[in-house]
Amino acid sequence: MVQALLDHLCVCVWPIVASFFVVLVLGIFIYFGAFQKIYFYRVREGGFHLVYREFEGEYRNVTPKFAEVTDALRSCGLLKSMFGRAGMYFDDPGKTAKGKCRAYCGFMMKEDDLTADVKKTLASNDLLVQHIPPTDCMVTDFPFRGWMSIIVAVMRVYPAAKRELGSTWKGAPMELYNSNDMCSDLTTMRFAFPTEATPAFVHRKDQ
After folding, report:
1. How would you class 207 by CB atoms within 10 Å of its CB: exposed for 0-12, middle for 13-18, buried for 19 or more?
2. Please, are residues 90 and 203 in contact by the beta-carbon 8 Å criterion?
């Protein structure tokens, strides 16, 4: 009789538990932007210097390179001069040999802050500088609610850009973050796809 009761409880409780987990997982995906509407609008993006180091590999492994740049800027006292993280991604992982995708990983600096002394300090810390002039771009903004948001955004934004922008997309897309600190102040990620040919959006080794 006890076994029959347990079997009955399992039959009754299991659908409830399964439904709970389905709702929980769905809620997590909604929270991190899985159903966020992706729409693009035109702006002039740029007007800053990108302070960076080069990356080559699989894009899922870029985080340590950003950490390197963060540590280098902090050690030379220039991290507070930056106004947000930024990355430029030059290769399509679907068309490039595994481990050969190139990127610039770094931070944005205001144009007027790049003095001769700052240039010297950056160079002595193996940090490169690329000026990003104001450039016509199609952009979309995505909310940041944790690291999972980045994964969800990449999975949603790039396929949408390929579908909607097509041949109007010229050069490396940029990912712009509105904070230096990925753990506390960050609220928004911007994906910018240049629509005018500009040398700044071409890898320096390809120019």
Report:
1. exposed
2. yes
